[in-house]
Amino acid sequence: MNDTDNANVIHLTERQPVVTGPEMLASLVPPPQFDDATFESYRSDDAYPSQAESKALLEKFAGRGAPAKRGGFFSRAKKEPELKPGVYLDGGFGVGKTHLLASIYHAMPARRKYFGSFIEYTALVGALGYRNTVDLLRGADLICIDEFELDDPGDTMVMTRLLGELVTTGTRLAATSNTPPNALGEGRFAAQDFLREIHAMSDSFETIRIDGVDFRQRALDGHAVTLEEVEYAQRIADTAGTASDDLFGDVIRHLAKVHPSRYIRLIDGLDLVGLREVQVLTDQSEALRFVAFVDRVYDAQVPIVATGVSLDQVFAEEMLGGGYRKKYLRAISRLNALTHSAQQPSVA
């Protein structure tokens, strides 16, 4: 069965999004699901004190810390050490790092501030050129970088140089990071890897460790939801603004033709993404592109329906034991949440 004859169904494989430099710059804001993220709405887990401690430190970084108490007439107020111009949020997936990053963005009283994924910033450099990007971002009060990638040494060097130039003009930085190749990343080595890779900037970052378990899995049981073909076809037919292609493999091949920074445009205007006949991914490049796509779908909070292999089983077993383990596990967590949200009447 296919959806070719259904005029209401959008085919991802037919979309070839183009994004201009100015559009990229204008889009550097938190994802819709974090439009209202605040420190107050961050629900820390009492079992992991580092979550509440991190929130307090980040509130101070954002300029919301309690003022120092004044001493008596002859006493001097204790001067607290100044925070570094950058903070790096280190921790596993699903502990609320992006929520806290967005909270910094919303709380800081900045005239110019930007929030984007690492991929979005490097795509901006690719579209406008390095010098033009520096000129555009110079003078910004705050730059937030979600999912700072350490996989590509060239991109890492470009971003390190870019941030170095901005810090010297007073820009403050906040970042979360993914794990580099060959580092399993769920222990306490992520911060060490991050600082090593951005060695020219490492002294500018204060590392803040956030422990905890994946909040998405605390709320879910079992596996990602998989539908039979008849139920899948009915859901596609009943939902306006739905994307569905004949085969999962077609979508995966199409992702190779679109730059990851444009994946968000693939799902513009969609209320549901359908993935038919999901198969296990065994090619690393295909799997990582799918991870980047899932990240954008999750940011937009678009539910997913699927047939075939359960999406929590989409990555080959050997991949889950390799250097990109943390990325795959985060994607599985998000896929699980998105397939469950598709079973609800609406998505928050």
UniProtKB/TrEMBL annotation:
UniProt-listed Gene3D superfamilies: P-loop containing nucleotide triphosphate hydrolases
Listed InterPro entries: ATPase_AFG1-like (IPR005654), P-loop_NTPase (IPR027417)
Keywords: ATP-binding, Cell cycle, Cell division, Nucleotide-binding
Keyword Cell cycle: yes
Keyword Cell cycle: yes
A GO biological process held by the record: cell division
PANTHER family to which the protein is assigned, alphabetical: AFG1-LIKE ATPASE, ATPASE N2B
Protein's recorded name: Cell division protein ZapE
Lineage of origin: Bacteria, Bacillati, Actinomycetota, Actinomycetes, Micrococcales
